[in-house]
């Protein structure tokens, strides 16, 4: 290994590996350092997303939904079967195979682009030197003209519910559950909690979600979160808001856990076979920076950066979960591109107002831009267009009509300010609104574009038309001006 590089990237997750590949593409001599080792004890690239996050959770979500659909919804199509069963170990094995395939793919991309890989834990020293401690304890120091910190994040643990073997698990342990529990408790009603709750509820598990906040999905548009709660209740999820967990007690012999929680002034307890703790994530910055490295942290351990992801130390960048903004893989990846390109002298930037967020339940929930509540609070004059999937011919044909598309636009300029979708293929449909917003489109622009028929995307078209009371396939209410 050479000891001098143009760029040293710390972390090979969706932020780090993208940054490393882009830097190498730009002709920069690049080293990427990764310390994560999989259950087989081998270094695995891809970070949380590929190994124990986005990808494996989606594999389980897709498998469980196919089972649920075949078991409960095929009859409406005239498809009958005598018995339906799920082999959970096979479902888990498929998830693991997908992870292996994708992480190996990143290693191939490194090789193809000429990115050097160092296995071990990194620490940023003064003078843009990076110390690498290998698994065997040996230490190497490399010099970097530039450094990109992409060390990611890890699940937050809470004192009332310490992890215990396979009974109390975090989001990583939740991916290893190899049989459907009779009763599952989930602490946290956010993205991870709802996705894991959905997987097991579809397989017949009784699921209780304990959310400490009084509002459900508080970060989402309230009209969407209200609809989501209604739909999830029909699906069998018992979602309890304002439920603050105060303690847990594990019965090792019975392999169960009793969870105590407060709701208002009342004390409650529930017994579960498994408990998933999904209350958020914290940045991986412990032991990452020497005191004289010149990189500053805030009180929560996040690294201070400017609009272009550069830290207080010139030539040192930080991206992804260790900096401000949503902890999203696609946000980290684009920040990685920005950091690499700015190092190469290009004027790259990212538009933080157009980063979509998605919850991969069914129906999916996706959003970009401002919510109606944010617009009300800011005093901006806006208008609203909503189109329900119940009025979509394509959704009806697919027996998938829950939810709606909601578009918010400026009352005066008609510029799209936000898009919020709960329904089939919400993630992909929302991307159409993201593209429109990136180009400064108006609701009228979307309304005058020809959309294929019959498609789910027509719901986006109709919601844009509805913003001015021009929707064709639903009755238009009196134009809503706010």
Automatic annotation (TrEMBL):
Protein name: Dihydrolipoyl dehydrogenase
E.C. number: 1.8.1.4
Cited PROSITE patterns: PYRIDINE_REDOX_1
Cofactor entry: FAD
Native source species: Sinobacterium norvegicum
FAD/NAD(P)-binding domain ranges (all copies): 5-336
Entry note: cofactor: Binds 1 FAD per subunit.
Subcellular location(s) per record: Cytoplasm
One of the record's GO molecular function terms: dihydrolipoyl dehydrogenase (NADH) activity
Major subcellular location class: cytoplasm
Keyword terms, alphabetized: Cytoplasm, Disulfide bond, FAD, Flavoprotein, NAD, Oxidoreductase, Redox-active center
UniProt cross-references to InterPro entries, sorted A to Z: Class-I_Pyr_Nuc-Dis_Oxidored, FAD/NAD-bd_sf, FAD/NAD-binding_dom, FAD/NAD-linked_Rdtase_dimer_sf, Lipoamide_DH, Pyr_nuc-diS_OxRdtase, Pyr_nucl-diS_OxRdtase_dimer, Pyr_OxRdtase_I_AS
């Amino acid at each position: 290994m050479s000891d001098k590089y143009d760029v040293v990237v710390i972390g090979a997750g969706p932020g780090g590996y993208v940054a490393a590949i882009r830097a190498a593409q730009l002709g920069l001599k690049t080293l990427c350092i990764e310390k994560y080792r999989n259950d087989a004890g081998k270094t695995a690239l891809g970070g949380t997303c590929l190994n124990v996050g986005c990808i494996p959770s989606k594999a389980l979500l897709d498998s469980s939904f196919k089972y649920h659909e075949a078991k409960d919804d095929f009859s409406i199509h005239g498809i009958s079967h005598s018995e339906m069963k799920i082999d959970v170990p096979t479902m888990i094995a498929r998830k693991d195979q997908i992870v292996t395939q994708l992480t190996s793919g990143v290693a191939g991309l490194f090789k193809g682009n000429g990115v050097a890989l160092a296995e071990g834990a990194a620490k940023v020293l003064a003078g843009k030197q990076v110390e690498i401690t290998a698994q065997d304890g040996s230490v190497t120091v490399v010099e970097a003209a530039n450094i990109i910190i992409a060390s990611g994040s890890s699940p937050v643990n809470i004192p009332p519910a310490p992890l215990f073997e396979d009974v109390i698990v975090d989001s990583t342990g939740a991916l290893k559950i190899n049989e459907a529990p009779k009763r599952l408790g989930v602490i946290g009603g956010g993205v991870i909690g709802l996705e894991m709750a959905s997987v097991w509820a579809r397989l017949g598990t009784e699921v209780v979600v304990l959310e400490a906040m009084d509002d459900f999905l508080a970060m989402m548009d309230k009209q969407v979160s209200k609809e989501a709660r209604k739909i999830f209740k029909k699906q069998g999820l018992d979602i309890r808001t304002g439920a603050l967990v105060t303690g847990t007690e594990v019965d090792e012999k019975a392999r169960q856990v009793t969870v105590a929680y407060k709701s208002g002034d009342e004390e409650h307890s529930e017994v579960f076979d498994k408990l998933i703790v999904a209350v958020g994530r914290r940045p991986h910055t412990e032991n990452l920076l020497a005191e004289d490295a010149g990189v500053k942290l805030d009180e929560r351990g996040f690294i201070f950066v400017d609009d272009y992801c550069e830290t207080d130390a010139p030539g040192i960048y930080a991206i992804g979960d260790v900096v401000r903004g949503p902890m999203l893989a696609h946000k980290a990846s684009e920040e990685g591109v920005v950091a690499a390109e700015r190092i190469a002298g290009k004027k790259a930037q990212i538009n933080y107002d157009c980063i979509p967020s998605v919850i991969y339940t069914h129906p999916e929930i996706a959003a970009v831009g401002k919510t109606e509540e944010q617009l009300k609070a800011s005093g901006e004059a806006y208008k609203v267009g909503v189109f329900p999937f119940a009025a979509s011919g394509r959704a009806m044909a697919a027996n998938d009509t829950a939810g709606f598309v909601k578009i918010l636009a400026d009352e005066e300029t008609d510029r799209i300010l936000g898009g919020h979708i709960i329904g089939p293929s919400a993630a992909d449909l929302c991307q159409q609104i993201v593209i429109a917003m990136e180009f400064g489109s108006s609701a009228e622009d979307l309304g005058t574009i020809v959309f294929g028929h019959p498609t789910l995307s027509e719901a986006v078209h109709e919601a844009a038309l509805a913003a001015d009371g021009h929707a064709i396939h639903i009755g238009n209410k009196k134009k809503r001006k706010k």
